[in-house]
Amino acid sequence: MDIITVKTRPFGDQRPGTSGLRKKVKVFQQPNYLENFVQSIFDALDDYRGQTLVLGGDGRYFNRPALQTILRLAAANGVGRVLVGQGGILSTPAASCVIRKYGACGGIILSASHNPGGPEADFGIKFNAANGGPAPEKTTQAIYRNSLEISRYRTAGGGEIDIDRLGAARVGDMAVEVIDAVTDYADMMQQLFDFELMRPLLSSGRLSLCFDAMNAVTGPYAREILLRRLGAPAASVIRDQPLEDFGGAHPDPNLAHAGDLVARMHSDAAPDLGAASDGDGDRNMILGNGFYVTPSDSLAVMAANAQLLPGYAAGLAGVARSMPTSRAVDRVAGELGIPCFETPTGWKFFGNLLDAGKITLCGEESFGTGSDHVREKDGLWAVLFWLNLLAVRGESVAQVVRAHWRRFGRNYYTRHDYEGLDTGAAAALMDALKAGLPQLAGQRFAAGEILQADDFSYRDPVDGSTSSGQGIRIMLAGEARIVLRLSGTGTSGATLRVYIEKLESDPALQGQDPQVALQDLIALADNIAGIGRHTGRSAPSVIT
Ligand code: VG1
Ligand code: CO
After folding, report:
1. What's the predicted TM-score (pTM) here?
2. Of 113, 147, 296, 322, catalytic
3. Which end of the chain has the least Cβ crowding within 10 Å, N or C?
4. Counting atoms of ligand 1 from 1, which one is nearest the CA of 280?
5. What is the fold of 3-179?
6. pLDDT single digits (tens) 495-524
7. What is the CATH number of domain 184-408?
8. What is the pLDDT of residues 44-90, one digit of tens each?
9. Which residues have CB atoms below 5 A from the ion given as ligand 2?
10. Quick check: CB of 376 below 6 Å from ligand 1?
């Protein structure tokens, strides 16, 4: 094989964020930019030579050329075999499934997830380890250090590999297998859920759904699973063609970006379940007829009902949630008598807990839920979980959630995002907030008394590693809480996320609009953090 060593220089900005390296496509298109990062990944690993690597992405613009570049680098660096999703496609959970199923040493996933795509938009790359999950912090830090010192990368000569045709090929000594991107994942879903129960209900229309693939990667997965294997009518899946620019839309399944679906769920023609997934298929939004389920509630409902579903009939070992996620699931864990872990934002922090068998279900407020079946959050899995649950209980989404609130209390919840902020102004806001933390405890406001205020730090109970500076927590009486942190996935300016929550145990008071129920806390967040003053904004860009 023709191995070429190319001299290069560090870029200095290749620090992975919450979920891999995300930049504008134009940044990735600079000569050597992608190559430097991929070489830095190989240099951070010690056991990949001769082994299997999984490669795929969400199909966004630049996916295809990036994939060819990575194949050449992989061959020159001594990878034994690469499994590539057909057409370069693998949803993030499917990639996790394939890594685990074929004993790969890891995988490279090309995605910027919920960020928009296209020549002027975003691209991303992340490395997943042999357990199928996002590389832990010690690996991402090693990748970053390598990227600051890199002076050469290795690549191979040769032409392009045809990634659209299933089958085997070679790049020099390295085998390339183009695999069906959907089958392994669909088979796994069929193991976890009761397809026999759901199929007659879905095919006869007794249980109806609308799944919005948002022109992103889940289209082919949804067609195979929901339409072909479960027999739902064709119109049950919308925007099911993966497009390089997601049709110009923002592939982020929330109330702001899945507007058509939300409108349909509030119309006379609303099906029983509405759902959407994001660019790379790991997020989910769940809606009922005229009803929105917050992701935090969705996790809690899943935990409370898991035993009704075949894949989880044995019960849950434990649960985990990211710190900003509402504490609704904590209440379920308390009642079930199982442990509940609080981790920093980002799926990589769940990996050790899942591997150690300490948890079965986990989730984040950012439309992410998952289980120990893979090591990523999983959008379609969540949709199937809900469908199976509705089929078993024979109730509507709203009935299931309201009954849950009556039993466990309702954790009113909202997240306010301030996007595209001046980076300096956002940093100044956080610095001032941190400086004022010691004075907050004991102060009384209309929203209640502040009991505790800190900067969240996490010690991993499995490997003892610590991660500090993971977000400001302000805890108030009455199980109310305000959390503030800066996003680690954006590609321009800074995004401030403000998470607000309050418990309401009285069923008579559980039917309010969260923005109303939480208004005192929303005002207090602005008061304490000086959001308007620092950012010049009078309202958030997105409310979820
Ligand atoms: C966001 C979410 C976080 C999620 C991450 C990756 O990160 O808040 O919960 O794990 O996106 O999701 P941040 O740092 O911007 O808040 V995905 O679907 O974009 O890979
Ligand atoms: Co995603």
Report:
1. 0.95
2. 113
3. N
4. 18
5. Alpha-D-Glucose-1,6-Bisphosphate; Chain A, domain 3 (3.40.120)
6. 999 999 999 999 999 999 999 999 999 999
7. 3.40.120.10
8. 998 899 999 999 999 999 999 999 999 999 999 999 999 999 999 99
9. 113, 278, 280, 282-283
10. no
